[in-house]
Design goal:
It is a single chain. It is built from two helices and seven strands, in the order H-H-E-E-E-E-E-E-E. It is an alpha+beta fold. The strands form two sheets. The protein has a four-stranded antiparallel sheet, with no helix packed on it. A hairpin with a 4-residue loop joins strand 1 (42-44) and strand 2. It is globular and about 40 Å long.
């Protein structure tokens, strides 16, 4: 996770109305597992695409696939599976060339 992602996650927590009592029940960031290996967020081949995301506090994560880069709705949601040390992974066995994606990891208690 880089600083930009951390700032965005913090802004989302504030925008969704987390109270100080909710924040105290959370696990401090320094207690989350740290992924030590190398990883790539998205690895494409015409036969399949692999997705990886480090989200140690997530209870579930999905990859949302889109036809367009802006506007529109996701045409497919793919459930990611927990791996090791807070990583989540999914594989889509189709050609995703020209498609777009985002990750969805709902905030618990939001």
């Amino acid at each position: 996770m880089n600083l930009k992602q951390l700032v965005v996650m913090s802004a989302v927590a504030v925008a969704t109305g987390c109270t100080s009592s909710q924040q105290h029940t959370s696990t401090p960031f320094d207690e989350y597992p740290v992924y030590e290996g190398e990883w790539v967020e998205m690895a494409y081949t015409p036969a399949s695409t692999r997705f990886s995301l480090w989200a140690p506090s997530a209870q579930e994560v999905r990859v949302l696939l889109y036809e367009k880069g802006q506007g529109g709705s996701a045409y497919r949601m793919v459930k990611m599976e927990p791996a090791s040390d807070g990583m989540w992974q999914a594989r889509v066995d189709e050609d995703l060339k020209g498609k777009f994606y985002t990750f969805s990891a709902p905030i618990i208690g939001a």
